[in-house]
Structure formats: structure tokens, C-alpha cells
Amino acid sequence: MSKVDYAEMEKKYVYGTWTYQNKWNPRVIVSGDGCYVTDADGNRILDFSSQLMCSNIGHGNRAVIDAMTEQAKKLCFASPSFATPPAALLGKKLAEIAPGDLCKSYLTIGGAEANEAAIKIARMYTRKPKLVSRYRSYHGASSGAIALTGDPRTQNAVGMPGVVRAPDCYCYRCPFGKTYPGCGITCVEYIDEIIKLEGPHTVAGVVVEPIVGSNGILVPPDEYMPRLREICDENEALLIDDEVMTGFGRTGKMFCVEHWGVSPDIMSMAKGISGAYLPVGATMTSRKIAEYFDQPENNFSHGQTYANHPMCCAVSLATIEEYQKKRIVENAARMGKVMEKRLGELAEEHRSVGEVRGKGLFWGVELVRDRETKEPFVARHVKADPNIIQRVSAEAMKRGVYISNFINTLIIAPPLIATEKEIDEGARALGEALVAADKETR
Ligand SMILES: Cc1ncc(COP(=O)(O)O)c(C=O)c1O
Hints:
This protein is an alpha/beta fold. Helices cover 37% and strands 17% of the residues.
């Protein structure tokens, strides 16, 4: 069957996500190998965004595929009321690699589910209703997770009540009009103010992506996360760290909060936990939370049919072993330096680049119409389709490189196994593609 047949068939029978159905024109992908995927016409495409920032160990990893096959031959499913070797081993492995005293996991099937569990656990543990999150954030599409989310995808979603949004840590466009370091990190201090105004006795926790992902790769100053930890402690609120996108080596450390030596109370993860070979997520909790649920009077009131799924757990375990055996996180840190240099050079050459920011192999290239005024190309809530950012991605794709984008930012996040040669190839295509945006600048 031809490429057009599959694309048309899928469009007819399967919803395209987060898109106007009539505008969705998917490319048919048929195979993957390392940092590349191949489409139905046989074109090899460098995956410069790890699909949805999740194919961290690249495509076609033999060890993970073997682990999946072996587990499938033994046991594909067990009710979560049973124990299985893969779930036990994955739980133990996560406790070994997670920061601080995170020690016990709820094992689920994706990032939104991990955050749903985080919300419920925080509320059960603190017996407080409210959660603070930020505007430029994405935490998942389900009712609780979309309520935490502040980005435009919240339109058409009436999520759960009890969420209070805080201003973003976005130095390039500081919500307080200030400049670091003279700003005194007002954005984090304001979270303290919010909790005080809401009433600390009502706030269960603060949920943040340690580096904001799809909403622009926003990297906080070094003081931000340690100060947020203090603010949470002072107000008896939990620090809930959403590492769904940043976890598992993406930023050059196994978990992003390790950059600042911060230990959260709850950490949600997904994506890189299984390198996206199967849908997996996890919600890890600190010792004090685990001990709370060890008390005979405290029921852990949460579960799903596919919790602790043996196939998912076996694949995650094999993926984490790959990170460790092949020193993939170390490669991400090393290649991150190469990427920083290449993107820095592109920023100098292209007037449409407003700012380049990131860590490890997690980079955002924010495009602007006017570098002086920082006038954006695309307004946040206005539908301007197809816009210049999407055109840059399309130009890169014409050159055989896949680069995802969101609002005004191109997201550069290749698999963590990327080599210097692959980074050069991607950066070269990006440079050529940026010419389209340069032409639209003032
Ligand atoms: C930070 C963050 N949290 C949660 C999610 C939701 O994960 P999922 O799409 O697996 O439900 C995402 C997805 O992109 C994410 O980036």
C-alpha cells in the first residue's frame, strides 16, 4: 500500500492530536534506526527532536527490543494486585537513580497519568486542596494535568478546580519587566506571595517543570529551584517536579533538578523512562510520603488496570540499563556543549533568532520578527496557520531534518546518543531553514 493510502486512512479513522483535522497532513514513517527515521518513500530523516522529546536512546535499540520480546514470551500482563519481577526491579532501580530520598514509585503509562497520581498523592498526604503551577507549562491532557497546564492547549478544557497559576520564570521576557540578576528572582518570590495570599493551610504543593519544555525551553537562573524548595518547606507545601520531558538524561544529568542539588517531594516522569519504546510513566515519592502510606489508616486510593504493567516495566528497566551501560547521559552532557556552540553560531548569523537557551541536549531557539523590540512572530492565542515557525520546521524537513516547534520556539532535542557529526548535520539544515524566517524580520 502506498504512503498516501496510509496517511489518508489514518486521517479518516484516527484523530490527529492537538490539531485541526483538516490541516493535519502526516508523513508516513515506517522504520527507525539510531538518530534517524525513514519515511514511506525511503527518505532518511534525522530526528532532531527525538519525536516528542522522548526517543532518548534513539530508534531500534537491540537490547530494549530483546527485553521486550523476552518479557512478551514470559508474561504480557498481570493484574497490579500481583507482584512481577519487572515491576519489582524497576521500582528498585528508580529508587537507586532518583535524587534525594525519592524511594517509592507508582508505575503508570504516561506523563499525564503520572501527574494525575502526583496530584492525588499530594492531596491525600497534605489533606490540602490547592496546587500552584505556572502559565507557560504543559503537564498533560487529562483533566487534572490539563488544569495544571497553563499553555494555550487549555482551551476547550475545563479541568479540575483548585489550581492557582504563578508567573513564569522567563528571563528573556520577564513578566515583571526586570533583568537578572538585579531582579532578585522576583518570579520565585512571587510564588511565596501567592501561597501566603491563598493561605498555606490550603496549598498542597507547587508543580513545576524544572526547565520548561514545550512552552519554550525556559531555563531558570541557578538560584530558582533551591529557593523554590525553601519556599515550599516554609509553607509546608510539597515540591512536585515534573521531569516527564527533562528526565532521563535530556539535560545532561539523569534528572534535571540535579543541576541545582534540589530534592523534590514528588517527581513525575515518562518519555525517556522507556525511551518511548512502550508507554510508561512513574510518580516517585519521598520517604516521608511512602511512610505515610505505610500507616494502616492511610489507604493509597489510586490505581489503573495497567499500573505496574510487566511489559512496560521490563522495557523501562532495559532502557535505564542502556543509559548506564552506554554512558548515554554523559554523552548528552558532552554533546550538549557541541550543540550550544553550533546554536550560538546560528544565533549570530540569523537575525530571526531572538534567543537560544537550554542545557544538555534540550535547546530552544526562539524566533522573533524584531530583535530589538523582541516582537514575536506568533501571538500566543491567535491562530496564524501556517506560521513562520512552522515554515522553518518544514524547510528543515525538506533538508531531511525533523525539528518540532511550539508557538515561537523550535525545539532542538536529538536522541541522547547523537554524535558530533549528527549535530552538525542538524545544525546545518537548521541554518539553511532559518533563512526563511530571516526574510520576515524587520
Ligand atoms: C513536562 C510534561 N509533563 C507531562 C506531559 C504529558 O505526558 P504524556 O503526553 O505522556 O501524557 C508532557 C508531554 O509532553 C510534558 O512535556
